[in-house]
Amino acid sequence: MSTNITHLPTPTDLPINTFSMKHPLQATVLANTQLTAPARAPWNDTRHILIQTPGLSYVSGQSVGVMPPGIDPRTNRPYAMRLYSIASCGRGDDRKGDTLSLVVARHFWDNPETGEKGIPGVCSHFLCDSKPGDKLLLTGPVGKRFVLPLDFMERDFVFVATGTGVAPFRAMLADLFDQGYERSGRSVTLVLGVPFADSILYDNEFQAMKKQYANFTYVTAISRGDDVNPYPDLFPTRGNKVYAHIALWHNRQHIAPSLLRSNSVVYMCGLKGMETGVQDVIDHVGKESGIEGLSAQLLAEGRLLREVY
Length: 309
Ligand code: FAD
Ligand code: NAP
Fold this sequence. Notes:
Layout: E1 25-34, E2 46-52, E3 63-67, E4 71-72, E5 77-78, E6 82-85, E7 99-105, E8 108-109, E9 119-120, H1 122-128, E10 135-142, E11 157-162, H2 167-178, E12 188-194, H3 203-212, E13 216-222, H4 244-250, H5 252-260, E14 265-270, H6 274-288, H7 294-300, E15 304-308
C-alpha cells in the first residue's frame, strides 16, 4: 500500500475500528446485484452488495474488513480478514443510516508452484455468492486520510479509478452532491477505467449525475474495447490499451484547470499499476503550463492521495 501525507483539513473524530476481529459486527446481506454483463461471468463478475450494518458509523472513503468463514488450510486458523472500500456515503444508499454498500469483483488467481489456474479467491467469492439474509462478520471501519477534506466546498476534485477502485468515489460523489456541491463554483471529475464497455460499474448512476450537475465531468476508459491508445509514444500502455490515465490526458482541456488549481485534490484508487501512468500524465499537464514536477508537488502538499495496491 502506498504511503501518503495529508495536510488537508480532514475530520479528527472519524470512527475507527468500532468493530474488531475479536468483537466483529454481525451484519446481514440485503441485496446482491450484478453490475457487470452476465455473459462476462465468471471472469469479469462484479457485484454491488448492500449490507445492513446496525451500529456502524463510517464516512466516505473508509473501508471495512470482512471475515470470511472457514479455516485457511495454510495456517489451520480462521481465514484472515480482507479489506473492502465502502461504496456508499456514510448515510448509506438509502440515506437512512443503517446500511453500507460494497462493490466486489470475483478474484481468481493462478498458482505457479502447482500450475493450477483460475483458483477462486476466498472472500471475493464468499461475498459475490452471498444472498439476502446471509450473515457476515465485519470489522472496522478503517482509513483516516483517503477521505474528503472538511473544506470540500472550496476545492476541485479529480478522482481516478480502475475497476472496483470506483467504490470510494461513488461514496464521495454522493456526499458532495448531497451537500450542495453543485453550488460550490468548483468542479469534480471522475475518470473510470474498466475492461468492457458493457460492464461499466455504476454507469447509469454517473450518467444521471452528469446530466444533473454541470460541475461533474465523467469520463470512462475502456481497455478491451475497439479504441486504442492514441498517445503510444508519450504514454505507452500494455497492448496499446486505453487506460484511465490515457482518458485523463485525452480530456485534459476539461480536467487540466482543476489539476492546476492551487487547492485541488487528486485521488486515485484501484490497481497499483495505475500510479505511474496517472502521475506521468499529471506531470505532462503541468509541463504544458510551465510547471515541472506537478505530481511531486501535489504529493508534497498532500493533494495527491493514493489507495492502490
Ligand atoms: P484470496 O483468496 O485472498 O487470494 C488473493 C491472493 O492471495 C491470490 O491472488 C494469491 O496471490 C494469494 N493466495 C491465496 N491463496 C494462496 C495459496 N494457497 N498459495 C499461494 N498464494 C495464495 N476488492 C474489491 O473487490 N472491492 C473493493 O472495494 C476492495 N477494496 C479494497 C480496499 C483495500 C484498502 C484493500 C487493501 C483491498 C481491497 N480490495 C477490494 C481487495 C480485497 O481486499 C481482496 O484482496 C480481494 O477481494 C481478493 O480476496 P480473496 O479472498 O477473494 O482472494
Ligand atoms: P478490473 O475490472 O480488472 O478493471 C481494472 C482496469 O484497469 C482494467 O481496464 C485494466 O485493464 C486496467 N489496468 C490494468 N493495468 C493498468 C495500469 N497499469 N494502469 C491503468 N489501468 C490499468 O478491476 P477490478 O477487478 O475491480 O480490480 C481492480 C483492483 O483494484 C483490484 O486489485 C482490487 O482489489 C483493487 N481495489 C483496491 C481498493 C483500495 O485499495 N481501496 C479498492 C477497490 C479495489 P486490462 O485488464 O484490460 O489490462
